[in-house]
Write a structure and sequence with these properties.
Layout: E1 4-9, H1 18-34, E2 38-44, H2 48-53, E3 61-66, H3 75-88, E4 93-97, H4 100-112, E5 116-121, E6 123-127, E7 130-137, E8 142-146, E9 153-157, E10 174-176, E11 206-210, H5 225-239, E12 242-245, H6 247-252, E13 280-284, H7 290-293, E14 301-306, E15 320-323, H8 326-338
Parallel strand pairs: 1-2, 1-4, 2-3, 3-10, 4-9, 5-9, 11-12, 11-13, 13-14, 14-15
Antiparallel strand pairs: 6-7, 7-8
Helix pairs in contact: 3-4, 5-8
Bound molecules: flavin-adenine dinucleotide.
Flavin-adenine dinucleotide binds at residues 211-213, 216, 218, 246-249, 268-273, 285-287, 289, 291-292, 295, 305-308, 311, 325-327.
Length: 339
């Protein structure tokens, strides 16, 4: 029988992130499939708020490593805390969100605890009493279903793949666990663009992809990059969507062609770009070639606007293809959103 531990860290404001709640949803559901209980292990400066918020999750026990040394992301303290929690819970199976903080520290914790780690797992199942973890490889082109005999088996869960836990708060009693580690490294601050400047929004409901067509000569023989920028930013602002791009569009800058000023290679979606997770995606002026669409693996509902009825999206890659001029379509969409 597995002894399951859900492991998470608090955010700067003492809460649990959406990714952490998704991992909790996955842990609670796996425990129920296994017919086993589970424990919660929290890391943070003060975990009271987080523990109370998930008080009704059904965990049998709550453990925490807390204090000023555990408030910030630091490999030494996070790894030591995770090992201490795994040992306190006698965990054989550890489920945790793949936040940058835990993605960095948990493989080391698994090694120190004598177990193994698998990262960025996208699905969990139980087959004949054994836990099966799904992980994608080769830029999301192949997946494997894995079991492991080594314990503890530490699994980080990819964001956007599991429904977030929702339930009653409570006031569980939390068992304090101590952990010792060097604190030579200090986080002095976080530099991040403001929410409005930030066009990559992993938590957005919708992904808006811009393709190279936005910068190409249009029916009147002219390019209209300024108009494209206005339409795209106007839509992002109103729909609070996340922005993605095709490789061709972000590469154009390097070729000396006029490009959208707010795009960087970080926006690139696809085989050599990112694989974002959003409920909906809208591709505009993007051809829908395989190396691009492979990055849409986890977009649930896909739509595209393209002048070309024979583009890649029409080859079974989109749920809906609007054969239309994206300049016209997005002008109308923005108008409707504005009203
Ligand atoms: C090894 C390798 C890795 C790659 N990795 C990636 C990757 O990670 N991501 C990626 O995106 N690509 C990748 N590519 C490139 C990919 O194959 C395509 O070349 C690229 O995605 C094309 O970008 P695009 O669709 O924006 O541009 P284009 O192919 O130039 O398409 C522009 C589209 O805009 C349409 N259009 C023009 N004007 C309008 C308008 N007014 N309204 C509506 N539609 C309009 C046109 O009909 C056309 O379909 C990779 C290629 C290779 C070989």
């Amino acid at each position: 029988m597995e002894t399951l531990l859900y492991l998470a860290h608090t955010e700067a404001d003492g809460s649990l992130s959406k990714t952490a709640l998704e991992a909790l949803g996955a842990a609670a559901s796996l425990a129920s499939d296994l017919g086993a209980g589970f424990s919660v292990g929290l890391i943070g400066e003060d975990v009271t708020q987080a523990a109370n918020a998930i008080g009704g999750c059904g965990a049998e026990k709550f453990f925490a490593v807390s204090g000023p040394d555990f408030g910030q992301s630091r490999y030494s303290t996070d790894t030591a805390a995770a090992v201490a929690l795994i040992q306190a819970a006698s965990a054989t199976l550890v489920l945790a969100p793949a936040t940058s903080r835990l993605a960095r520290s948990l493989p080391g914790a698994a090694q120190r605890a004598g177990g193994r780690a698998d990262t960025q797992v996208t699905a969990l199942a139980v087959d004949s009493g054994s836990v099966v973890a799904t992980r994608w490889y080769y830029r999301q082109r192949m997946f494997s279903n894995m079991t492991r005999s080594q314990r503890p088996w530490v699994i980080t869960l990819s964001p956007g793949c599991f429904p977030a836990w929702e339930g009653e708060a409570g006031s569980p009693s939390v068992e304090a666990v101590s952990a010792d580690a060097a604190t030579n490294t200090t986080v002095k601050g976080v530099l991040a663009p403001s929410a409005d400047e930030q066009t990559i929004r992993p938590d957005a409901e919708m992904l808006f992809v811009a393709g190279a067509g936005w910068t190409k000569k249009q029916a009147d023989g002219q390019t209209n990059v300024g108009g494209a920028e206005k339409l795209i930013l106007g839509f992002l602002d109103q729909a609070k969507a996340s922005l993605g791009s095709s490789k061709s569009l972000v590469d154009l800058g390097g070729e000396g062609q006029e490009v959208l000023s707010f795009l960087s290679h970080l926006h690139q979606v696809g085989q050599t770009g990112s694989t974002p997770r959003h409920a909906k995606g809208l591709a505009t002026c993007c051809h829908g070639e395989e190396p691009h669409v492979v990055g849409w693996r986890f977009i649930t509902e896909r739509r595209a606007v393209n002048l070309d009825e024979g583009c890649g999206w029409a080859q079974g890659k989109a749920d809906v293809l609007y054969v239309a001029d994206a300049f016209e379509v997005m002008t109308k969409v923005n108008e409707l959103l504005g009203s």
